[in-house]
Amino acid sequence: MANDLTIHLVDDEESLRRSLTFLLVSAGFAVRAHSCAKAFLERLPLSGRSCLVTDLCMPHVDGIELLHRLRRFGMDVPAIVITGQGDIAAAVQAMKAGAFDFLEKPVREEALIAAINGAMAQGRHGSAVADCESVAARLRQLTDREHQVLSGVLDGLQNKMIAYHLGISSRTVEVHRANVMAKMGARNLAELMRLAMTIEAAAQSIETTRKAQAGDRSTYMRQF
After folding, report:
1. What is the CATH code for 5-125?
2. What is the pTM of this model?
3. pLDDT at 49 over 80
4. CATH 1.10.10.10 in the chain, residues?
5. Which end of the chain has fewer CB atoms within 10 angstroms, the N or the C?
6. CA-wise closest residue to 3 among 68, 48, 40, 44
7. Neighbouring residues of 160: CB distance < 8 A, sequence distance ≥ 6
8. CATH fold of 132-222, please?
9. Could you say which DSSP state residue 46 is in?
10. What is the mean predicted confidence (pLDDT) over 50-67?
């Protein structure tokens, strides 16, 4: 890892902040630790290459609000969110707010380093994680039921809630979910979210272009 990269670690829990700082420094990263989101925001704008690793649940300004503020400030900082176990709904919100990945506590060293490397690689190669046509082709492989399960997963629902809404068993949801992951080529929920957002971003871009072209045609016609 290049030594010009600084990891900004934001966590209100001192023991976790210290342990993650030690882990990252031992792995060769430069680290700046912040006790809260406000302390991190006061350091903006950042200089050099940076990656944000932030806890999700913090007082006053939580991880999701921090990501929203960075977006409003026009700060494109690759971000990784640390969540409590089973907090899938919040993790999905974090992905939608711009996080590259989320990791459940306790954080494993290899998972954190892989997430940082992945976030920085995405920053170098653009926001698209996969070719839209390729992702669309994978989506077309899903059955109707698998599409329904996928929608529930992307809404942050637990398997039991998806099962309740669809009127099927939790075990059946687990099978469909595993099929979705396999067909989409996603190793975890974060990858599945990134794939889905690739399609969503492309669809929004197409719709914006369509409306702009329609507006241009309307303006042209009014000239005659």
Report:
1. 3.40.50.2300
2. 0.74
3. yes
4. 132-222
5. C
6. 48
7. 170
8. Arc Repressor Mutant, subunit A (1.10.10)
9. P
10. 94
